[in-house]
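Collaborator request log, item 7. Partner lab (contact: R.S.) asked for a structural prediction of Azurin to inform their binding assays.
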Amino acid sequence: MKKLITGMFLSASMIALAATNMAHAAFVNSSATTELVDGKQAKVIEIKGTDAMQFDLKEIKVKAGQKVKLKLTHAGKLAKTAMGHNWVLLKEGVDVPAFGSKAAAARDNEYIPKSEVGSIIAHTKLLGGGESDTIEFTAPKKGKYTYICSFPGHYALMKGTFIVE
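Returned to partner:
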């Protein structure tokens, strides 16, 4: 009888230890949206663009001055010459259609117009299907900013709001 009780106690202890380890693993995994970058907690954002000219995120929220690590993945299959995607965060007040028109003429610079670099906070490389690019930047002051894909004609559908609180 004593062996049976000891065995049950050991089994219960092992189950409790396993549950504690699983709870710790769940806690570690639940914090996967932030990481330490240059001594500060960074907001990690993953966004996808598709061959249907859509971003999977229409709104992104961060804190003013926060480090941001953004990964853009082109989830489609088409080449960047036919359906390239990038992620461009524009400063407040930028005329998006005017920027998009200038971007369409900037093929040699992956549709980032050199005359408009002062209008851009951050941007990724131009990607083809299956490619990805990760950038890091510091969130600007509080406000609402527009992000777009600057490939010709995409800005009308591929856009979203970057909210800085």
